[in-house]
Amino acid sequence: MTTVESPRPAPATGAESAAPAHRNVALIGFMGAGKTTVGAILAGILGFDFLDTDKVIEQRQGRRIADIFAHEGEPFFRGLESSLCAELEASEGKVIATGGGLPVNPANLASLHRHAFVVCLWASPETIYARVRTQHHRPLLQTENPLESIRDLLARRTAAYREADLIVGVDFRSPVETARHIANAFRHGAARA
Ligand code: S3P
User: Fold this and answer.
1) For burial by CB atoms within 10 Å, which of 47, 57, 103, 183 has the most?
2) Going from the N-terminus, what domains does the chain have, and what CATH number goes with each?
């Protein structure tokens, strides 16, 4: 898939006027797309608080994601993600960077859409691989052929990622450019849900 700028079309009828404004911005997308880096910059631009779901889970659990996967298994981690996701519905004025697998659960994605302008950072498998190849904290990429794993997982997740309100290609944008782009879109479009 090529990188795209694809705002989701607004409803055709007057439904938007009845909908509440987006209170938050949620960043979704594959591991290594830059959600944490862009999210922190975006929060600064908007004057919002920044929150990273992986970091919150690690803090609450007192251990790294890799340890949670290794000792409790992935389903346990996904349960923590879903609980946190539901909790975040009460948030206001937050930029939320989500773990790459969080929106794959349709209930989590629906939850984000209820309160946040949902933005997908889209990176090609090659860009992701170049960024994560020297990192070892992501259990799902500790495989014999990480590039192949990225391609497989990304293909399986693409439909979920495409449900974002806005998809921003990051292969040729710096984190600051990406954050500014999202801030503009949020300011101009997020007043209507
Ligand atoms: C995961 C992505 C990670 C982390 C966990 C699982 C995934 O977060 O939640 O390792 O399933 O894609 P990042 O996207 O921040 O790396």
Assistant:
1) 103
2) 21-189 (3.40.50.300)
Q: What's the gap in Å between 124 CA and the centre of ligand 1?
A: 16
Report the alpha-carbon distance of residue 105 to residue 130 in Å, rounded.
27
Q: Determine the length of the chain.
A: 193
Ligand 1 atom nearest residue 137's Cα: 10
Q: Which of 78-87, 118-127, 135-144, 173-182 has the lowest mean pLDDT?
A: 135-144
- Looking at residue 49, the DSSP 8-state letter turns out to be E
166 close to 190: Cβ distance less than 8 angstroms: no
Testing ligand 1's pocket by substitution, the residue of 140, 149, 150, 152 carrying the most ligand atoms inside 8 A of its CB is: 140
| Residues in contact with ligand 1 (CB, 6 Å cut-off) | 31, 35, 54, 65, 99-101, 138-140
Structure confidence by residue, pLDDT tens digits, 41-65: 999 999 999 999 999 999 999 999 9
Taking the centre of ligand 1 as the mean of its atom positions, its distance from the CA of residue 145, in whole angstroms, is 17
Report which of 65, 54, 72, 30 is spatially closest to residue 138, judged by C-alpha positions: 65
Distance of CA 77 to the CA centre of its chain: 16
